[in-house]
Amino acid sequence: MPGLRMWRILVSGVSGPIGTALVPSLKASGAQITRLTRGAAPAAANNNDHLPWEPSRPVSPEAVSGFHAVIHLAGESIVGRWTPAKKERIRRSRILGTQNLAQALAQANEKPEVFVCGSAIGYYGDRNDEVLREESSPGSGFLAEVCREWEEATRAAAAAGIRTVQIRTGIVLSPNGGALGKMLPPFKLGLGGRVGDGHQWMSWIDIQDMVGGIHHILNSDLLHGPVNMVAPRPLTNMEFTRTLGRVLSRPTILPVPKTAVRLAFGEMGQEVLLASQRVEPSKLIMSGYPFRYQELTASLQHVLRG
Fold it and tell me: Each residue of 182-201: b (16+ CB within 10 Å) or e?
């Protein structure tokens, strides 16, 4: 990608599906990567390659000074039953960690040109068939509340003149885990099917476009604020299910009733598996990002080959 050669970039969340794909691509573009990681750096690591941090504690402005860009992807997984303790970990890992990092960047002597911070389309809540763009209002529910506060936690960086982007990420299709990794085992056995009535919209993005979109944001000075990281053509859960079955050459005739989802997963099932979010990547399209995978079939064939 153009424009990143010799950039120093600080990245958190490097072990997740997005970070695993993003870091090698940044290196291939000529960037120098420092990983922001919890705990001590690995014994074999170069000290310049790792910066230890604890998200719940203040970050030293000197430690984060001198980077051209900071990409903050770290956060507790939302998968699993949302006990009070789990919800608190989700909130603290995103909101407090982002707030501490943003404040340190704002106070750094050499501030980054751009701060890219994770967020999610959970910001919009359950919206049925409504087409959702970056200017759409926030929704209701736990995830929507977390995403609103998560984005608000970047305010110190933006106020300090740092170009700040919140990437509202949809379902990332990756060969390295994530949502697709959890869906594949039953589908490969022919036990897959729609969730609930299957009418809820699923907004997805191929991992290559997720990575390419972040490169595009780093190189596009006019992009700031929230950016929807989804492919241009969302599908209903029923359409998604049928497409995945066709690609795998497996039947998809065993639906999962809403009551079963709620019993098994509680609040998480309602807000993640049953919620409908028909999201449009308006800013990526208007800024000229060339999507590699606009159709789900092509993306699944690419991902499953990987």
Answer: ebbeebeeeebbbbbebebb
Q: Is 184 helix (H, G, I), strand (E, B) or coil?
A: helix
Query: 239-250: b or e for each residue (b if 16 or more CB lie within 10 Å)?
Result: bbbbbbbebbeb
Tokens of 257: 């009733």
pLDDT in tens, 12-29: 999 999 999 999 999 999
Q: Which tens digits make up the pLDDT trace of 107-134? A: 999 999 999 999 999 999 999 999 999 9
Contact status, residue 233 vs residue 295, Cβ threshold 8 Å: yes
CATH number of 8-305, picked from 3.40.50.720, 3.10.20.30, 3.20.20.30, 3.30.565.10: 3.40.50.720
Looking at residue 44, its pLDDT comes to 45
- Cβ proximity of 180 and 303 under 8 Å: yes
Q: Give the predicted TM-score (pTM) of the model.
A: 0.94
Question: Contacts from 236-240 at CB under 8 Å and sequence distance 24+?
Answer: 236/198, 236/199, 236/200, 236/201, 236/202, 237/194, 237/195, 237/196, 237/198, 237/199, 237/200, 237/201, 237/202, 238/194, 238/197, 238/198, 238/199, 239/296, 240/202, 240/204, 240/296
128: left (phi over 0), alpha (psi -120 to 50) or beta: left
What Cα–Cα distance (Å) separates residue 55 from each residue in 17, 94, 137, 166, 253?
20, 8, 29, 18, 44
Show the tokens assigned to 280.
């449009």
In this structure, the number of other CB atoms found within 10 A of the CB of residue 264 comes to: 12
- Burial tier of 61 (Cβ tally within 10 Å: 0-12, 13-18, 19+): middle
pLDDT of 305 over the 90 cut: no
